[in-house]
TrEMBL record:
GO terms for cellular component: cytosol. Residues 4-176 form the NAD-dependent epimerase/dehydratase domain. Belongs to the NAD(P)-dependent epimerase/dehydratase family. This is UDP-glucose 4-epimerase.
Length: 186
């Protein structure tokens, strides 16, 4: 049975990934700060702040994982802490959920291609550039390891357990046939 570590698997996308991995028979571990309980007692909970390098190194040094899925990595510092805490002799696949916010949208045409230029844009600003730095760190760190790196760049993701009020507000109004107010146009 493959052991999978999911970073940030307690709600929204991470929770759904955890559920699917469990359904497929993986032994699933979730690392989070412990602010949300893992409801399934068959899923292993590792409580730690991913920004605490010393504690991450101490806790994760006792585990070996076949697959790592980083759902909540925001920047290069978090990527570096995670990489320094894992035993990559056992990690065969590493999945980083990035964002389409990394694309240089001001100089590209939709639809974006996987190999399109990355760069800051005026809407996403630091969020996008931080994700770019995390991607680059993972790419550089794993290039000489026997670990397959998979980077996913989803655009907006909607669905069950979404914590972003802006989406649930709009969908709730549509379902209830209530008005959606918007700003004026020029």
């Amino acid at each position: 049975m493959n052991k999978v570590l999911v970073m940030g698997g307690s709600y929204f996308i991470g929770r759904r990934i955890v559920d699917k991995l469990y359904e497929k028979g993986y032994e699933v571990y979730v690392l989070n700060r412990g602010s949300r309980a893992i409801e399934n007692s068959d899923i292993h909970s590792i409580i730690c702040d991913r920004n605490d390098k010393e504690t991450m190194n101490h806790i994760l040094s006792t585990y070996n994982f076949d697959i790592v899925v980083d759902v909540c990595g925001l920047n290069e510092d978090q990527a570096e802490i995670l990489c320094s805490s894992l035993d990559f002799d056992s990690v065969k696949k590493f999945v980083f959920i990035s964002s389409s916010a990394v694309y240089d949208i001001e100089h590209l045409n939709i639809p974006f291609a996987e190999d399109d230029a990355l760069g800051a844009d005026s809407f996403w600003q630091e969020y996008g550039t931080d994700k770019i730095e995390a991607e680059r760190y993972y790419t550089e760190s794993l290039k000489n390891k026997d670990t397959e790196l998979i980077i996913l760049r989803p655009p907006y993701v909607y669905g069950e357990n979404n914590y972003a009020q802006r989406e649930s507000f709009i969908f709730d109004h549509i379902v209830k046939n209530q008005p959606i107010l918007r700003g004026g146009t020029k």
